[in-house]
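MODEL INPUT / OUTPUT PAIR
PAIR INDEX: 1
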Amino acid sequence: MAFTDRSLPAREAILGAARTRFATDGYDRATVRAIAADAGVDPSMVMRYFGSKRQLFARTAEFDLRLPDLTEVPPEQAGRVLAAHLLDRWDGDEALQILLRTAATDDDAADRMRAIFAGQLAPQIATLTGDPDGAATRAGLVATQALGTALCRYVLRLPPVVAMTRDEIVTWIAPTLQRYLTGPP
């Protein structure tokens, strides 16, 4: 659907309100009416511009992990570089937090999360290790650590994990990521 330049401010207000509402309430509890009210528009505009709540969520959750090229760092540093990068991404990207909250209860969001790790991380691991057959397994294991850390820090807000500095978390999880990236099975 083509939009006029006049619709851009309304669409951006809806997207901003949706990001905030999904992050605060989660996918299931967020309503189109509440998002529209937060954006200062009629609910019909949300449907007109985005089609459905699910499509609106998908637009708010579009992102790229922007992974560093792990083949350009010393192989023994890949876990540390990846841990630091992923933590920075979680800290700086509200869409990742929205997707994490929603993936626990929504199959489409869970599919999206799986696709992100498989599609963006597995190819790098295949290049890094020279083992394309094992890359998906390694990417899945990296995801367990990354998503577990993010869940505990940003969703469950476990006090010891929330209290840790970025560098402390990196120090703790980097060896595990290193083993998943380059260690023996």
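PAIR INDEX: 2
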Amino acid sequence: MTKHCYIHGFGSFAPAKVLTNHDLEKFVDTNDEWIRTRTGIEERHVVEEGQCTSDLVTEAAKVALADAGIGAEALTHILVATCTPDAYCPNTACVVEDKLGIKGAMALDMNAACSGFVYGLQVACGLTAVSEDTTILLSGGETLTTRLNWEDRNTCVLFGDAAGAVVISAKQTPGSAKVVDIELSSDGSLRDLLTIAGGGSSVPYKLNQPVPAEHFVMMQGREVFKHAVRSMAGICETLLTRNGMTASDVDLLIPHQANIRIIEAVGKKLEIESEKVFVNLNKFGNTSAASIPLALADAKRQGLLKPGMRVLLTTFGGGFTWGSALLEF
């Protein structure tokens, strides 16, 4: 990257309702031991009826704005990464803008599934390169539990609801994190391995038609696992090499929180010690586009993001999409 952008505030929000593995045992053919050993997940947060993605993003945004020390009126752009928007139209970013009590910002949704936040990071940096006076709210928010087939035990145990947000500008300030570099990729030929197809133009609805299985998350888990590990590790290596670095120069790896076995496999491929790999998957499950910003905010709350640290982000999602970003605190 020839020009850098900076992150000034971190925020996250998860619904109050918690669904544990033991809760799932009551209505899904599964058990706590099976879920924990195969996924690393112990519990996940679930929206209440009437609670939507914009609600979660708005709350995360308020925390990020407070952490950055600015008001919502300072925002010039609102970017929301999500594959579970409030509606097809209007976009969720416009709803968030209204809930923050402001008008006039550029408001845009982006969908790269679980990779949405890291994809959005490059969009935000591009916007700051065009105009140095921009102040951007970049968020990732999902209500994936509303798109789960609770009869499919292979997918319904994996996902949770949450949002994360950051404030980005072209100006460096004390305590800000520099976005050093970003690398993104995709492979649309693998799109059918992870989908929520129902309702789109390829699987349209008719009035009063029963809701089909395609409306919910459908995933070929073994294939996704294989591609996720290879792609996340590979793109990290590409990014590090371009910046004259190796994995030994990384102080903290924050991977997409999808599955503990994926996280461990990526860390092993990169030869990064487990104590340098951030994990909060056990408390939130896979929150898709919210995963990385939620983890960043969580890591900051835990005092893990210290000045001088190099933090490597990596993600993988439906599409397939994947990416990596290097931050310097």
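PAIR 2 NOTE: Residues 178-328 form a domain with the Peroxisomal Thiolase; Chain A, domain 1 fold (CATH 3.40.47.10).
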